[in-house]
């Protein structure tokens, strides 16, 4: 669907008790909150070579998130909110493989603008999705050198901050990693524990699964890694 050429408004389902345009060291667009600039490419993808549809990013579209009002608080506030996140990264030799903030020994890693943490990226997108906010690529655009090589923990912390600001906490989270190699079973518990800490959630509500791609396609040929996350947020 084509983007509107001019800024438009929608009523944010997020209700807050304080202005969301306060300065934040984590969200570089915070000075423009509640406006998020929509970019056409996600944070995790490097710019493709040559002219591509990415150039259409010049035609950024601003979405104005309305500030909190009594009316949207009463009509949009829900006891539960569900979000889904998906992410995929290309695996290339010469890069570290970081999953859930943990360095994973491997012969290759994620070629990405940030640290390429596929799990944290999709968890962030799941939380943002549950909150009805723009995705990770729009809040932390890869066009900003500020995020080059940034640890993805900063994105998680910002998503968690937004979640609390909206009056929600993690109900439970279920994530699935898809990769052919290396075997994650020895490190899965370490990753899950670290993810729980980053989320400030009890480990019992954070679940992590991992599976191969049966040696087919890029995922099954050790050329990419992907992750899915579903999260349930509960009103505090
Ligand atoms: Zn990513």
TrEMBL record:
Domain of life: Eukaryota
Reaction catalysis annotation: 4-CDP-2-C-methyl-D-erythritol 2-phosphate = 2-C-methyl-D-erythritol 2,4-cyclic diphosphate + CMP
Catalytic class of the enzyme: lyase
GO terms of molecular function: 2-C-methyl-D-erythritol 2,4-cyclodiphosphate synthase activity; metal ion binding
Alphabetical UniProt keywords: Chloroplast, Isoprene biosynthesis, Lyase, Metal-binding, Plastid, Transit peptide
Residues in 2-C-methyl-D-erythritol 2,4-cyclodiphosphate synthase domain copies: 80-233
Enzyme nomenclature, EC number: 4.6.1.12
Family that this chain belongs to: Belongs to the IspF family.
Protein name (record): 2-C-methyl-D-erythritol 2,4-cyclodiphosphate synthase
UniProt organism field: Cephalotus follicularis
Taxonomic placement: Eukaryota, Viridiplantae, Streptophyta, Embryophyta, Tracheophyta
């Amino acid at each position: 669907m084509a983007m509107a050429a001019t800024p438009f408004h929608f009523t944010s389902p997020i209700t807050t008790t304080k202005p969301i345009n306060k300065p934040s060291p984590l969200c570089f667009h915070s000075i423009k909150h509640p406006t998020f600039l929509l970019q056409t490419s996600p944070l995790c993808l490097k710019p493709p070579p040559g002219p591509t549809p990415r150039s259409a990013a010049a035609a950024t579209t601003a979405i104005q998130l309305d500030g909190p009002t009594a009316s949207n608080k009463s009509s949009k506030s829900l006891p539960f909110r569900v979000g889904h996140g998906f992410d995929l990264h290309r695996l290339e030799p010469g890069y570290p493989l970081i999953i859930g903030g943990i360095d994973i020994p491997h012969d290759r890693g994620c070629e990405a603008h940030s640290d390429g943490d596929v799990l944290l990226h999709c968890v962030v997108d799941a939380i943002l999705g549950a909150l009805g906010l723009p995705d990770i690529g729009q809040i932390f655009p890869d066009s900003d050198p500020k995020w080059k090589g940034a640890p993805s923990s900063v994105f998680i912390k910002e998503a968690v901050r937004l979640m609390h600001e909206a009056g929600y906490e993690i109900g439970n989270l279920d994530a699935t990693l898809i990769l052919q190699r290396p075997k994650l079973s020895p490190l899965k518990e370490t990753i899950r524990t670290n993810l729980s800490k980053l989320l400030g959630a009890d480990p019992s509500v954070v679940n992590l699964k991992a599976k191969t791609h049966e040696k087919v396609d890029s995922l099954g040929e050790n050329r990419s890694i992907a992750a899915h996350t579903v999260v349930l947020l509960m009103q505090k």
